[in-house]
Batch of 4 targets.
Target 1
Amino acid sequence: MFEWIQEMADWLTYGIFSLEPETRLAEAVNFFIYDSVKILLLLVLVISFMGVINSYFPVDKVRNFLSRNKLYGLEFFMASAFGVVTPFCSCSSVPLFIGFVRGGIPLGVTFAFLVTSPLVNEVAIGLFVGLFGLKMTIIYVSSGVILGMTSGAILSKLRLERFLTPWVKEVLAQAAREEEEFQAEQTPFLQRLPVIRNEVFKILKGVVPYVLVGIAIGGFMHGYIPEGFFEKYLSKDNWLAVPLATVLAVPMYSNASGILPVVQVLVHKGVSIGTAIAFMMGVVGLSLPEAMLLKKVMTLKLIGIFFSVVTVCIILSGYIFNVLL
C-alpha cells in the first residue's frame, strides 16, 4: 500500500537531493520524507472517515455500550483487539486515537487501543512467527493485548479527561454541536460534505506541526543512533537490564515490524528474550515522537501519567518473559 511513498522518498533522497546511500543523513532524510507523507495521508483519510462516521453513526450508543459496567473489561479487550488488526506505528495510531476521543469513546478504552496498536499487528505477527516460532508469537500477542487492556483499565480508573488539552475539548464541543444539527435537520450527505471538509482542515491545521516535529525527531534518531550501542548494556547478568532497555528505547522510533530484526540480533548476541521484547515495546510504544504528537491532545501531566503506566506494564512483561522463557 505504501510502496509508492517509499519509491518517492528514495527518488527525492538519492535523486533530487543526491545524498549518498547508507549514510546517516540519507537514512534520516529518507525516513522523514516517507513517514511524513504516510502519516499525513493517514491523517486525511482517518479524520475524513471519522467525520463521515460521526455525522451518521449513533455515537451515544457506542459510548454507552463501551462504558457499561456489565461488560467487565470487554470494552478494553475490544479496543486492544482492534489495535491488533490496525498495522500502524505509534505515531500513525494517534490520528485514530483523536478520532476515538472525538467520537466520545471513553478515554481509558482509547488508551487500550493506543497501547496495543503499535505493539501488535499482522505484519509483526508474521515476522515474529518466522523469527521466533509459533509459541513465542502466541505469548507475544497475548502479552501485547493484556498490556493494552491493563494500561487502559488502570488509566480509566484515574479519570484523566480533565487533562485533555483545550483544543481537544473544543473539537469535542464542536462535534457535539454538529451532531445535534445533523440529527435535527436530517441533512443529506452531500450537504454535510462542506462541514466534514472544514472539520478535516481544522484538525489538520492543529495537528500537522506536531506531526512534522515528531517525525523529524524520529528521523534523527533513526539515522544517527549508532548500531551496537545498546547491546553492551543489556546482558543477561544485569538484573536491571529490563528497565534499562525500556528507558533506553524511548529515544528510538520505529514500528514493530521494523524493530523485530533488531530484536533477533540482540537475542542472538546474548540479550535475554524478555529484555529484548521490553526494548521493542519501549521503542514502538514509548517513543519521543509519539509524545510530541500527543502533546496536541494531552497535557504534559497526562502524557507523563500515560507513559509511566505503560512503562511499568512493559517492565513487568519483560520480567515475566524472562521467567517463562
Target 2
Amino acid sequence: MAAGQGMRFRSYSKVIPKAMFLIDGEPLIVRNARLLHAAFNLDVLYIVVGHKGDMIRDSVNKIKGVNCRFEFIEIREELIPKGLLSGYSAIVPYLELDEIFVSVLGDEYYEGVDHAGFADFVKSSLEFSVCCGVKKCTFSEEYFNNYSVDFKKGGAEVIQVREKPSQISSPYFGLGIFAAKRKLAEVAEQNLGLTAKCNFIELFNVLPKLGFGPIRGYEFRGGYFNINTRTDVFKVKRFEREKRWGNFTVDVIIPAWNEAESIAYVVRDFLPVCRRVIVMDNNSPDGTAKIAREAGATVYSEPLGGYGDAIKKGLDRSDADIFIVAEADGTFRGEDVEKLLIYLKNADAVIGTRTYWQYVEYGANMSFLQRFGNILFGSIITFLWWNRRSRFTDVGCTFRCMWRESYQKISDRLVGKGPEFAPEMVIELLNTWQRVIEIPVPYHARIMGKSKFSDNFLASAKTALIMLHLIILKRWRVWVDNLKVIGSLIFDH
C-alpha cells in the first residue's frame, strides 16, 4: 500500500512520497518488497499507488534479485483522501473468492523482524479472518500512533482492535502487516461510498461477527518504526547508523592559501579524530603544501578559484562516509569533531555557529558587527526557507559536517567559488529538503596570520555583499521555477 499523500509530511511529501524515503540508501518500499519476497517466495506483488505513483513505479521496477512479477494498481486521485479504504477496495478484482492475501504498508520499517515466522503462522491450519502483526510497546507513543490489539487471555485470538486508541488497554499494538481473506477488501469496498466516516482498521472487528473466523495476532520482535512524520524518518536513520557507527570513515577537508604558520598544528590536531586530513592548497608560495604533507595530511596543490572552489574540490576527492570541513588557521579544533558527529546521527548535515558569546574565545575575530551580520544572514535564510524548519544564526561558519550521500545530492548545484560557498551549501541542502541542524561550536583565535575575508571592515562588507547576492539569486530561482510549474499546470488544463 503506497498510495497515500502523507498529510503529516505536507511540504516534504510534495517532493517525495513517504514510501520512497531512503533508509540506508534504499527506498522503504523496496526494502519491504525484499522482506516479503524472502518470507513468502512471491509469484506476484501488487503495489497500490496514487500520489506520485510514477516515482514509485520507477523505483520498484529497478529492484534486482527479486524474481516475482510486479503489478501496479492505480487509485484515482479523488479517492486518495479516503485512505486505506480506497486502497483495499481497489484490490477486490485481483482476489479469488476466499483467497488470503498478505498486505504491508509501504511506509513502515522493519529490522531483524521474523517475516518467515509470520509466513508460517499464516500458512498454519488455524482459522482466521484477519491475522495481524503485533508488537509489545516500549514507549506509549508507539501505542497511540498505531492501533491497539486486545487479546483473549492466554491465546493468540484477538478480542478487538482500535485505531489511534486514547488509553492503553493492552501491552500490544498492531503493525501494518497482516493477512486477511478477500472479505475484508469487500467490506472496505462497501464502506467506501458511505457518507459516515469509517476507519479501515476497525473493519477487522466486523469479520468475526459475519462468521469469517476470529482475528489472530502474531508477535513480531526486532526493530519497527511507523513512518508518520519527518521525525520518524530520522529515528530510523539513527537506528540504522548506530548499528554501523564504528565502521564509518571520516575525512576532514581544509582549504588553505598561505597558511604555513598554522597548517602543521591544525593537521596534527585533526588527524587523531579522522581517517585523513585533506588539505586543498591554492599553490601557496609560502610552503603550505610541503609543511602540511610533513605533518601527515593528504595534500592537493593546484590553482583554485577561491575558498569555495577549494572546499568543493576537496569534497569531490574524498570517498569517506562523512565529510568535515574546517579552517587552516586553528579557529576550530579536533576536540569538537565528536560534538558534530553526535548530532549527525540524526541529521543530514550539521552546521556550526560562532555567535554564542560564551563559546567565542578572547581574541577571536568576532566583533559585534561581524556577529550581527552572521545572525542577520542566518535569519534571512531561515525566513526565506521557513518551511524547511531549520533555524540559523551563522550560515558562514566553515566548521560543519555532512554525510557523503547528502553532499552528492547537492554537488552539481554548487557554483560559488569564494566565501559565498558556505551559505550556498546550506541553501542547497534546504532546497533538496534535507535536515540541517545548527549547533554552537567554540571559536578560537587564529594561531597566526590574518583572515582573508574579515580582517577589516572593507573585507567583511565585501564578503557580506557577495553572500547576500547569492542568497537572493538562489531564492529567486526557486520562485521562478515554482511559477513555471504553476503556469504549465494552468495552460496544460
Target 3
Amino acid sequence: MRQSLHNRIAALVMFLAIAVPSAASAAKIETNAREAILLDYNTGQVLFEKDADALMPPASMTKIMTVFLAFERLLDGRLHMDDEIPISEKAWRKGGSKMFVEVGSRVTVHDILRGIIVQSGNDASIALAEAIAGTEEAFAELMTEKAAEIGMKDATFRNATGWPDPDHRITARGLAILARETIRRFPEFYEIFSEETFTYNEIKQGNRNPLLYKAMGADGLKTGHTENAGYGLTASAKRGDRRLILVVNGLSSVRERSSEGERLLDWGFREFDNYKLLEPGEVIDQATVWLGDRPSVPLVTENKLILTMPRTARKEMRVTVEYEGPIPAPIVKGQVLARLRIAAPDMEDRVVALRAGADVAKLGPFGRITAAVGHLVWGPSTGE
C-alpha cells in the first residue's frame, strides 16, 4: 500500500508480538517494617518498597560500609588479610556488641573482618577505621564520600559502627544499593557474610543474621538494632540464577525481624521471575531508508535485556518500535536510529535504544535522480 511522504515521515510505531508478563496483576504485600525495600539483584527492579527514601538510623547495618572500604583496599593491595591492626583504648572501651579484642594488642585483618561481620563488633569496627584513616571521624568522612560515589543519595556517616548519632542517617534504598555493590564488586570477600560462627579470644559468637539458619538460600548481609532505629536487617538470598536483596528497619523484635525477612524474600521469589527479552545484536525490525544503496536497515539491540516481572501476568505488556522514517542515508553501523518501548500497567516504560545493524551508503547522483523520479511517479516506497 502506497502512503504519502508526510505519513511516512511521521512517527512510525510497529507493534511486536512478544509475550511477557505485566506488573498489573502483581501480588500485593504489606510489612510491619517502618522502612523496607526488596529488589532483584540482577536487574535492579524494585519488587516492593515502603518509605524507602526516608532517612533513618541504620544501626549496625552501617558496618556493611565499614567493611566495604576495607574490601576495596584488600582488592587493590593497600591492605592484606595478614596485616595486623593495633587496638586502641577507644576501640577497646567501646560498648555494645564486641569482638572482645584487648587494648594494646594487634589483630589480623582476617580476624577483624570476621569480628565485624559475624560478631558485629563495635571494637573491631573502630580499630579498622583507625587503621585505614587514622581516626574514626576521618573514616566516617571516607564512608560518606564513598556513599555518594556509589549512588547512596543523602547518606551521611558519623561513625564506623552505627552508634546513635542524630546526623548518622541512610535510606533503605541506599542500603540496598550498598548491598548490591558489595556483592557485585567483592565476590571473593562476600562469602564471609555467610559464616555462621566466629571464635576470638576463646569466645564463640554466632552470626546475628537469622536467615542464615533457615534453608532459604540466604548468605548475607547484616543486622542492626538500637532503641531509636528498631530492629533492622539488610539481607540477600540466592535461589538458582536469581538473587534478591532486602532491607527492613524499624521492626519491634528479633523475632519479627526474622519472620518479616523470611516472608518478604519468599514472596519475592514466589511472585516474580526474570524474563530474558533481548540478546545483544538481535534484529528487532527493519527501518525504511531514504536515498540509500539498500531499501532498509536492520534495527538491532546493543545489550541483553532481562526484566523482572510478576509470574502471573503475561498478556498485558506492549512492546513497540518507534522511529521517524524513512531514515536518510548515509547510515553508519551502530548509529542510534530508533527506540524499543516496553510498557505495561502500573510500571514505568522501559526504553531501549535500537542501532543500525549495517552501514548504508548514500546513493550516487544517478541513483538519487532515479529515486526522485520514482518518488514523483509512484510515491515513496513502504519497504513492504
Target 4
Amino acid sequence: MEIEGESGGGLVKVIMSGNQEPRGVVIAPEALNEGAEVLADLVAAAMKDAYDKSTATMRDRMEELTGGLNLPGL
C-alpha cells in the first residue's frame, strides 16, 4: 500500500508505505523557485499530510477487522 501526501496544491508530494516508511518525494519544478525555506516547509507539510492519511487509513482498516469483536482498548 502506498499513501500520498501533498502540499502547495500538489507542488510537493510525499509517498509513504502503509507502515509509514518513506518511499519517495516528488517536487514540481515550480516549487524550486520558492526558495529553500518555503520548499522545506512544503516538504514538511506533505510529510505530515502523508502521515495523517496513513494513520487514518490504518485506523480504519483495524476498525474493519475488529468491527464485530468487543476488544477492550480498541
